[in-house]
């Protein structure tokens, strides 16, 4: 990956995932993260470059690609939280819980996200002032 900033790949048609991206954008005051929809060609290229499976075969709604590799599930969520400023970085303390405890909760929410939060027809760019942080912005037009 040429860009040293971590990239959050998210389910662009999931309302919960889009809300999560908006939340990270609000609390990522250091602008550490870039973003791309899992449905985009950009995500496919980034995952291939990182040696990860294609988006359709990943079991997750949010994937993090950083210097440490490709992270999914609750590991991705806690790694993202740890890079935010205090007090939001405290959510990263969830990593102290064993994966056998965190992952089933994450998978339960991910499996039910469309039913509980709905979905949209296509991914939409969140706000024009953040467009430069969306690596797939050119695909959304």
Explain what the structure shows.
With 141 residues, the chain is α+β, with helices and mostly antiparallel strands. The protein has five helices and four strands, in the order E-H-E-H-E-E-H-H-H. The protein has helices at residues 15-27, 41-49, 73-82, 99-117, 137-140; strands spanning 7-10, 34-37, 62-66, 69-72. It has a four-stranded mixed beta sheet, with helices on both faces. Strand 1, helix 1 and strand 2 (34-37) form a beta-alpha-beta unit. The longest helix is centred in the C-terminal third of the chain and has 19 residues, at 99-117. It is globular, with a radius of gyration of 14 Å. The two termini are 24 Å apart. The model has no long low-confidence stretch (mean pLDDT 81).
What does the main sheet amount to?
4 strands, mixed
Number of beta strands: 4
Mean pLDDT: 81
The level of helicity is 25-40%
List keywords for this structure.
141 residues, alpha+beta, 5 helices, 12% strand
Outline of the structure:
The chain contains five helices and four strands; from the N terminus they run E-H-E-H-E-E-H-H-H. It has 141 residues and is an alpha+beta fold.
Question: Strands, helices and their partners?
Answer:
Elements: E1 7-10, H1 15-27, E2 34-37, H2 41-49, E3 62-66, E4 69-72, H3 73-82, H4 99-117, H5 137-140
Parallel strand pairs: 1-2
Antiparallel strand pairs: 1-3, 3-4
